[in-house]
Write a structure and sequence with these properties.
This protein is about 75% helix and about 0% strand. The protein contains 24 helices and no strands. It is globular. The N and C termini lie close together (about 10 Å).
């Protein structure tokens, strides 16, 4: 589809080949086996599980903080995702410079430390019930994750032989999605246990002092799990810092096929710039399907005791989609074609969610996870193809595109609350154009 050289149809294979050329000596690779890297691979699995767990806590935090901080609208509540994902936009490019100074291994440890500090900010935020303090904590966690995301892909690629790279990336993705499915269950059980009666008691209490006591008790439920999370992140930071993970350094400035690029600016690659926009829309619809689904159900009158688990349904759907992708790409279908069909499925399920109500609509929204599952691994290698010496900058721009997870859910809340669009109409207005653009990128945009 992009000429004879585009024969890497597995989602990560092209990018792996680039990292193989650019970041490490091939002679080193040929003298090692996967068994040599068993311990680091397990470490990376734990790392992927951990930041998957942290990322998908937002779906539970949105209704929890709306109640505990007495927010008056979903627009305010969606600043949870805004604060978290905006960090990627501001930290993506600086992360590349930080990693040049610290190295990749120390950079990952630093990212975990920043995430731990962000988690500890939740303690004073819970005692004071100050929503801005919670947002600072979330932004700090996003900062740490931006640094880790910029560092972790080369590491996973080198931990073993070339032939098994796809298998390793798949395992990492599965660890990430399993953690994402578990995190709403764990935090929802701790924070929103018997949520319906708690919400009713708070709404019916007219005494300001008694209402304050109830809200303080609810808010402080968040302290123990976030202390545990901070401790786990600190332990992981120490383990990564003192581990024997190899450092990697840039050695080549060539394309995956060994040819030099003659362009002088990152902005001379239209397929990359369209890819950044594609990532923007993809992350936006991923967060809509995963984090906004609870608010969507709540707006339809579904009880909080049930809506707090809706994020888990989407993540299970994503996990199924990821496994399907592992077994079908590239054996039966190329990544470009898979992206095209995934976007079409997203369009179909978004329309069905718009045309239905109640739990049927929730089912279709959670099934959007099935469409979203293979989008990142398909878009990323298409966007960085043949960037040569600009690959690092291109990857940073793509990471900046994650800010779509901050803006699109906020647009949904604004349309619904401020412009008084019907809940279902506001949702489809936000997600349908995103899937249409992703379909365009799969069909034509990546070839420009």
């Amino acid at each position: 589809m992009l000429g004879k050289q585009r024969n890497c149809t597995l989602p990560i294979q092209c990018s792996f080949n680039h990292f193989k050329l650019r970041y490490f000596n091939t002679n080193y690779m040929t003298k090692t086996t996967d068994k040599t890297f068993l311990s680091p691979i397990i470490m990376m699995c734990v790392l992927f599980f951990t930041f998957g767990f942290v990322t998908w806590l937002n779906g539970t935090l949105i209704p929890f903080l709306k109640l505990a901080c007495q927010l008056t609208s979903d627009v305010q509540a969606f600043f949870v995702t805004f604060a978290f994902y905006t960090a990627y936009f501001f930290l993506a490019l600086p992360s590349s410079y930080i990693l040049q100074a610290t190295g990749y291994k120390k950079g990952m440890a630093l990212g975990l430390l920043i995430m731990a500090l962000g988690s500890l900010i939740f303690i004073p935020a819970a005692y004071t019930r100050q929503f801005p303090l919670f947002l600072i904590g979330l932004f700090s966690q996003g900062m740490g994750l931006a640094l880790i995301q910029t560092a972790v892909n080369p590491y996973v690629s080198i931990l073993g032989s070339v032939e098994s790279a796809a298998k390793r990336i798949s395992i990492m993705g599965i660890c990430n999605k399993i953690a994402g499915a578990l995190s709403p269950l764990v935090l929802g059980t701790v924070l929103l246990n018997n949520a319906g009666s708690i919400e009713k008691n708070i709404e019916e209490t007219t005494d300001p002092i008694q209402k304050g006591i109830l809200l303080n008790e609810l808010s402080q439920k968040i302290i123990p799990p976030y202390i545990v999370l901070a401790v786990v992140l600190l332990i992981l930071a120490v383990i990564i810092y003192f581990s024997s993970l190899p450092e990697i350094k840039a050695e080549e400035e060539t394309n995956p096929d060994g040819t030099e690029t003659h362009k002088t600016s990152i902005f001379q690659f239209p397929h990359l710039l369209l890819g950044v926009l594609c990532i923007f829309f993809y992350v936006g619809v991923e967060v809509m399907a995963g984090d906004a689904i609870g608010s969507y159900g709540k707006a339809m009158g579904l009880p909080l005791d049930q809506t707090k688990y809706f994020t888990t349904y989407t993540l299970i759907s994503m996990l199924v989609g990821y496994v399907i992708g592992i077994f079908t790409i590239p054996k039966y279908i190329s990544q470009q074609v898979a992206l095209k069909y995934a976007a079409f499925i997203g369009i179909l399920f978004a329309l069905l969610a718009f045309l239905t109500t109640g739990y049927t609509a929730i089912v279709f929204i959670s099934l959007l996870g099935l469409a979203n599952a293979i989008m990142w691994p398909a878009i990323f290698p298409l966007a960085i193809y043949k960037l040569g010496k600009f690959t690092q900058q291109g990857a940073a721009l793509l990471i900046m595109g994650i800010v779509g997870g901050a803006l699109i859910p906020l647009l949904y809340g604004t349309l619904k609350d401020s412009f008084h669009l019907a809940n279902q109409l506001a949702f489809v207005v936000c997600v349908l154009p995103c899937y249409l653009f992703i379909w365009y990128y799969a069909v034509k945009g990546h070839k420009i």
